[in-house]
Design goal:
With 380 residues, the chain is α/β, with parallel strands linked by helices. It has eleven helices and 13 strands.
Length: 380
């Protein structure tokens, strides 16, 4: 079954007796995602030495899920296990924290421990009520139709949807030394917009971390943490079919219910800063790999073409900002505490109730939005 995932994978990773081995494949990996993902797993073994079982996984570092659930509906037609950064409700890919937790050198985004500290400092520069009372987004609109459609909501002399949308040109920013793209400098508006890119977007965790309500445009994809967040508690849901009107209502509602809006922003931000701090990310990976290993029905072996990797073997051949970020993300000592205890899985009734809670909260917002526009149209 594992070999069936090979055609999609960028690399095979084997953990055997506390050591990590990698077999690379010819499939193209975007930028250095594969390198920082491998580095992250190496850091996990430094954080929890001797606690990972022997296992063997396939990893695809590209964006969109490829293991379609519809192809595995027959008895004994189990899907090939393939790890990646996101999935969707039609797929069975296994979600894993993205490479940027250990640094995204190509965009000058530092490892997550450093970014959390920087964003916390950025949040202190202004209270929420002092911030610009509009919705803010900065990014590359050319990677997906949904982002191009979002740009139609930008403020112009002829229309005002209460949104300020900016195009991020990463090539231009690299020439300027990324002086205008520091994430910690972007916690300046009362509302932040999240919209997917080609798949899920790495920007998600940084947007949530700003203490401002995240206006979350209905997604198709999910990463490893988003399914635990709840509309109206951690974020404000935005329709993907009528973005401009939905965003306008969200901003108007938030500016007229400042205490409630501020509470949503704080809850979403606290989720990121506390439940998503690096220690908890390592715990997620630790439990994910342990549960995965329990399902293996074979003893992992080191492939003939695999090489052993460690922090030094990955960082030393790198240079510039790539090496700098690896040195910054290096776990210098093991954890002083044991991994958190994995809670029991939801039973079917609990899972159904949790999903219904999220659906109900979203429909409540949509009903309020419909009523707002209905009243406004009657006045005109």
């Amino acid at each position: 079954m594992l070999e069936k995932a090979k055609k999609h994978a960028n690399f095979r990773l084997v953990i055997l007796d506390g050591k990590i081995y990698i077999e690379r494949y010819e499939k193209y990996s975007i930028q250095t995602r594969h390198l920082f993902t491998m580095y992250g797993i190496v850091q996990l073994l430094r954080w929890y030495p001797g606690k990972l079982p022997n296992l063997e996984i396939m990893f695809d570092t590209n964006d969109r899920p490829v293991i379609a659930a519809k192809d595995f509906r027959q008895p004994n037609s189990g899907p090939p296990p393939l790890f990646r950064y996101c999935s969707d409700w039609r797929s069975m890919d296994i979600v894993f924290p993205d490479w940027s937790f250990w640094g995204w050198a190509e965009t000058n985004i530092r490892p997550w421990r450093s970014m959390v500290k920087n964003i916390k400092e950025g949040n202190k520069r202004s209270s929420w009520k002092e911030r610009i009372p509009f919705a803010y987004w900065r990014g590359n609109p050319n990677v997906s139709p949904i982002r191009k459609d979002l740009m139609k909501c930008n403020v112009t002399p002829k229309q005002n949807w209460d949104t300020l949308l900016y195009i991020q040109d990463w090539v231009d920013q690299s020439k300027k030394g990324y002086k205008e793209s520091n994430i910690e400098d972007q916690c300046t508006h009362r509302f932040k917009i999240y919209v997917e890119g080609w798949a899920w977007s790495v920007s998600e965790k940084y947007i949530f971390a700003c203490d401002s309500p995240t206006l979350y445009i209905t997604p198709r994809y999910y990463d490893f943490f988003m399914r635990g967040m709840i509309p109206q508690q951690h974020y404000w849901p935005i329709r993907d079919t009528d973005k401009c009107k939905s965003l306008k209502f969200a901003v108007q509602w938030g500016n007229n219910h400042t205490d409630k809006a501020q509470a949503i922003g704080k809850a979403g931000s606290d989720f990121i800063h506390e439940d998503m701090k690096m220690e908890r990310v390592f715990d997620y990976i630790y439990h994910l790999l342990n549960e995965y290993a329990k399902l293996q029905k074979f003893d992992p072996i080191v492939p003939p073409n695999a090489i052993e990797i460690c922090s030094e073997s990955l960082a030393c051949p790198s240079d510039g900002i790539w090496r700098k970020f690896m040195e910054e993300a290096l776990e210098k000592s093991p954890s002083y505490t044991e991994p958190c205890t994995l809670p029991p899985p939801y039973n079917p009734q609990q899972l159904k109730a949790f999903i219904e809670q999220k659906v109900k909260a979203t429909k409540q917002v949509e009903a309020m939005e419909d009523e707002y526009w209905s009243r406004l149209n009657k006045k005109h």
